[in-house]
Every structure is written in structure tokens, then in C-alpha cells.
Design a protein that fits this description.
Low-confidence stretches: none
CATH superfamily of the largest domain: MM3350-like
Number of helices: 14
Distance between the termini: 31 Å
Strand order of the largest sheet: 11-10-9-12-13-7-8-14
Order of helices and strands: HHEHHEEHHHEHHEEHEEHEEEHEEEHH
CATH topology of the largest domain: Structural Genomics Hypothetical 15.5 Kd Protein In mrcA-pckA Intergenic Region, Chain A
Shape: elongated
Strand content: 15-25%
Oligomer: single chain
Length: 401
């Protein structure tokens, strides 16, 4: 699809059209209720003018926009995009951001970025409470596959949220209710994204549109099609017999936190533990001013690996202290589809929590000696029946899998 067609798709997105309509309506300003909502008459007029789909029941007259789900979402979304704000009991436009409504692709991009901030308007489950993570997780899964079953994306959102929430005293019935609420809210979020023309839903299948592919990957920090491609060799320090290494091809504009996920997945780490990138005195990871660790989300891999031969240190699990040497082998200026790949490598990843290099060497020694008193225990710990099931040299690339 040509750039002009992408702009047309963005301009015709129903959600973006409604947001532009709301901003135009606000104009120089509109009065609000004491609770900060649109007044009843204004809300009713907007439901019709913007075709929000909010259903009005004449038996229960509304008092403000707070009782209209989609209109409330639009208002909060416009605030999150900084197109409108509340001042002195009125809703007014933000002049310095007014030009955004005339740039369709940028507007859709801004609405996508801010959707997690208004997740509470789409439901009240753990998925919407944790929308800052669940929206990214769902879209990252789609970006990797282009299309997936709705059921799978509901599971991704649920498992992402439940990694941060737990209900220790909940009964099976209560957890079932939580899950049903979660699935309902995922469908609501995907429905809103469909109204941004970012994705399509059909027959319980969700797929990124061409507009979505051009916007979602850059927003997620996954890199963009056509970006220069970096060929990076990752070697686990102190590994031997065999040396454990991987060769990665990644877009130069991939965010550093996403690059961590690629490195960890290619090596075989399950991302259970903290990590850090280091280049000289500069350190990048989860931001920590006291430890002088910069936010990895604000740096790209191409910002650190610039010329062939440039190196990075990468540490995974500060307990086991797995240190990796990252070397930029080459740069391809003609980019491809923007997807990261592991194209070569060798050596099986050590098990998590084995005790670092000394612990891994001890594990392999015990596996090689059936008479060792710990032999059976180690087999059980690894979940295998025979020592031969653990192949220290075993490795397949993305292309081989």
C-alpha cells in the first residue's frame, strides 16, 4: 500500500473521525457539570452527531456524558492525546496540539499510544487495569504473527495481567468470572483498535492491517521495515565445550528493551530475572537513578552499536551473573521486513537458576556420572529421564525450526 493509501486509511478510521469531530465541537470551549462531565444536552447532541453507538434508554434519562460509555471514552482519549483539557469548569482545545487533527496518520499513532491510558473506560477487569502492559503484549503478539485467533489474544492479555495481579482467596467460580470479564474487555479493546483501522476482526481471527503494520511496530519499539539491519554476535562468556553463541539480525531502530527480549529468547533465557546492558561507564536497563542506570526504553540498539566491531556487555540474572559479549559484525543499509531473527548459533542455553557458570559445570559433571549421588536428583530437577536427553550442544535457528 502506498503512503497516500496509508494516509487515506488513517483519515477514514472511525475512531479518529469521531475524535476530530469532538475536538471541532469543543472549539473555543464548552461548560462542564460540577463533576467535570459534559452536560446532558451536549452529550445527547454528540451521541447523534458523532454516531458513537451509545444506546439511550428513555426509561432512564441520563444526567451527563459519564453515563455514555463510548462518548466518555472519546472525551478521555482526547484528553490523553492532549487535544483538549479542562480549565475553570470548561473543556477547551489545546492550541499548540491543534494541528494534530489535520495529520491523520500521526493522529492514529497518538491514539494508539494513549489507548492504554484510557483502558479504564473500556472495562473494569485486570486486563483494563493493567492496560499499559496488556495492550502492548497483545499488539506485540500480533506484530510477530500478523494474524491470530481471538481466543489466543485473550489468553495473552490474561496471562500478562495475571503476572502482576493475583487473587489468593478467590474461588474457582470467582476466577472464572474474572476470566470472562477479561475476555470481554479484550474484545472491547480490539474493537476500538479496529475502529482505528489498525486491525481487522473476522470469524474470531484478528489481523493487523497495512496501516497497523506501519504504525504498531514502531510504537512497540520493534523496529521498522526498511531500517538498516545489524548483524550482532552474542557469546555467553566463560562458556566452553561448546561455546554458547547466537547470531542475530535486528533492525537498527529497535528499542533496547525489545532487543533484550530478542537476545534472551535467542539464547534460551525465560526472562525471569533482571538484566542490564553496559557500554563503558553507561548502563541501560530498568531505570534506577541511584544506581545510575538509564532507561533502556529511551535507547535503540543502533544508538549503541554504530560501527562494525562495536561491543556491548549484557548481563542476565544478577544472581547467577550470566555475562554476554555482544559484537556488531556488520551493517546492512538496505533493510528488510523489520523483523528480528536468530540466523546461527551453537550450544544449549544453561538452565535457569543453575548457579551460574560454576553451577552449570557441576550439573554437567553430575549428568556424566551415573554413580554420583546427585545424579537422579539432577535428572528430576531437569525433568528428563536420561542424561542423554540433555544435549549441551543442541541448538536450532529460527530458519531450522
Amino acid at each position: 500500500m502506498a503512503r497516500d493509501d496509508v494516509e487515506v486509511a488513517a483519515a477514514s478510521a472511525p475512531a479518529a473521525r469521531r475524535l476530530r469531530g469532538l475536538v471541532d465541537w469543543v472549539g473555543a470551549g464548552r461548560p462542564l457539570t460540577q463533576t467535570g462531565r459534559l452536560r446532558r444536552a451536549d452529550a445527547l447532541a454528540l451521541v447523534e452527531a458523532l454516531e458513537t453507538g451509545d444506546v439511550l434508554d428513555p426509561r432512564f434519562p441520563i444526567q451527563s456524558s459519564g453515563e455514555l460509555a463510548y462518548l466518555s471514552l472519546l472525551v478521555e482519549w482526547a484528553k490523553a492525546c492532549r487535544l483538549v483539557r479542562v480549565a475553570h469548569g470548561r473543556i477547551v482545545t489545546v492550541r499548540k496540539h491543534a494541528a494534530l487533527v489535520d495529520r491523520p496518520r500521526e493522529l492514529v499513532g497518538r491514539m494508539l499510544e494513549t489507548l492504554p491510558l484510557v483502558g479504564g473506560e473500556l472495562g473494569h477487569s485486570v486486563v483494563t487495569e493493567d492496560a499499559i502492559h496488556t495492550v502492548e503484549a497483545v499488539l506485540a503478539e500480533l506484530a510477530a504473527r500478523d494474524s491470530l485467533a481471538m481466543e489466543h489474544l485473550c489468553e495473552v492479555a490474561w496471562s500478562t495481567a495475571m503476572s502482576r495481579y493475583w487473587f489468593p482467596d478467590a474461588t474457582r467460580e470467582q476466577m472464572g468470572w474474572q476470566r470472562r470479564c477479561s475476555d470481554r474487555d479484550v474484545r472491547a479493546m480490539l474493537g476500538v483498535l479496529a475502529e482505528l483501522n489498525v486491525l481487522s476482526t473476522s470469524d474470531e481471527t484478528v489481523a493487523l492491517t497495512v496501516l497497523g503494520k506501519s504504525i504498531v511496530r514502531p510504537w512497540l519499539g520493534l523496529g521498522t521495515p526498511g531500517s538498516p539491519v545489524l548483524c550482532v554476535r552474542v557469546t555467553l562468556e566463560e562458556s566452553a565445550d561448546p561455546v554458547i553463541w547466537r547470531r542475530l539480525r535486528v533492525p537498527a531502530d529497535m528499542r533496547l528493551d525489545r532487543f533484550h527480549q530478542v537476545v534472551a529468547a535467542a539464547m534460551g533465557w525465560r526472562d525471569y530475572h533482571l538484566h542490564m546492558f553496559e557500554r563503558g561507564a553507561d548502563r541501560f536497563g530498568h531505570p534506577d537513578p541511584e544506581l545510575d542506570v538509564h532507561d533502556e526504553r529511551e535507547m535503540t540498539v543502533g544508538g549503541l552499536l554504530v560501527r562494525e566491531g562495536d561491543r556491548l556487555d549484557y548481563t542476565y540474572d544478577f544472581g547467577d551473573d550470566w555475562r554476554h559479549d555482544l559484537v556488531l559484525e556488520s551493517i546492512e543499509t538496505e533493510g528488510d521486513d523489520g523483523r528480528a531473527r536468530c540466523v546461527a548459533g551453537g550450544g544449549r542455553c544453561p538452565p535457569e537458576d543453575v548457579g551460574g557458570t560454576p553451577g552449570y559445570l557441576e550439573l554437567r559433571r553430575i549428568l556424566a556420572d551415573p554413580q554420583d549421588s546427585e545424579h537422579e536428583h539432577m535428572l528430576e530437577w531437569l525433568g528428563i529421564e536420561h542424561a542423554s536427553d540433555f544435549d549441551a550442544a543442541g541448538f536450532v535457528t529460527d530458519d531450522d525450526a
